[in-house]
Design a protein that fits this description.
Elements: E1 2-9, H1 13-25, E2 31-35, H2 47-51, H3 65-71, E3 73-77, E4 80-84, E5 89-92, E6 97-105, H4 128-138, E7 143-147, H5 151-162, E8 167-172, H6 184-196, E9 199-203, E10 207-211, E11 214-217
Parallel strand pairs: 1-2, 1-6, 2-3, 7-8, 8-9
Antiparallel strand pairs: 4-5, 5-6, 10-11
């Protein structure tokens, strides 16, 4: 059984920053980081540049393996499925338990998905693994439809435009893109720039069903 004075779930910017500060405050305490990706922290905001070929593999990591070794940060590639706060213990997807003294949940967000009639395979844009899968697919398709006009959806649309996808469309439930970071005037400016680049926008709408490579919108 693993025992850790400090257990951090999540290896994004929040998790790795917390680990650094804990190490500065406690030079000896064992710090364990659980992350389902199992790789050193990388710049998630640079994934669109990586897809477009503007950033290399070597430029993505925000921390190196050597950094984790120097700071004595232990990584476990797994996912927490249960927390017993009274017993101060978590259970991993693999079944292994970890007993902790202090626990930090820094998991960030997860891409929202929902069932769409006729659509068997759903690709999300969130992690490096997601982007690698999308990059492999775009070479075979001249058109791309993105469901969701939040910040990541916009990042993906920009990356697909840069790699030469002939036609890209974004379907978004809200009446303007970029919520909550963009207010309506800023969103309108961005939308005009996107349309000028040939990106189609379908606002206040969503996909109800898919037949082959045709999506039927709610409208």
């Amino acid at each position: 059984m693993t025992r850790a004075p400090y257990l951090i779930v999540g290896n994004g910017i929040a998790g790795i920053t917390a680990a650094q500060e804990i190490r500065h405050a406690d030079a000896e305490g064992r710090i364990v980081i659980v992350s389902d990706e199992g790789v050193p922290y990388y710049y998630r905001a640079s994934l669109s540049e990586w897809m477009a070929g503007e950033t290399t593999d070597a430029m993505l990591p925000g921390r190196t393996t050597a950094f984790y070794e120097t700071m004595r940060l232990e990584q476990i590639a797994d996912r927490v499925t249960r927390i017993d706060a009274a017993a101060r213990q978590v259970t991993l997807e693999s079944g292994a338990p970890i007993v902790y003294q202090k626990l930090l949940l820094a998991t960030g967000a997860r891409a929202n998905t929902f069932a769409i009639e006729g659509l068997d395979e759903i690709h999300v844009y969130r992690t490096l693994e997601d982007v690698r899968a999308i990059k492999e697919l775009v070479g075979c398709c001249g058109r791309a439809l993105i469901l969701g006009g939040g910040i990541l959806g916009l990042e993906l649309a920009g990356a697909l435009h840069k790699v030469g996808i002939e036609q890209t469309a974004v379907v978004h439930r809200r009446d303007h893109v970029g919520v909550p970071l963009l207010d309506e005037p800023a969103a309108e400016w961005l939308q005009s720039r996107m349309r000028a680049d040939g990106i189609d926008l379908f606002l206040s709408d969503t996909v109800e069903r898919v037949a082959g490579r045709t999506a039927q919108l709610k409208s």
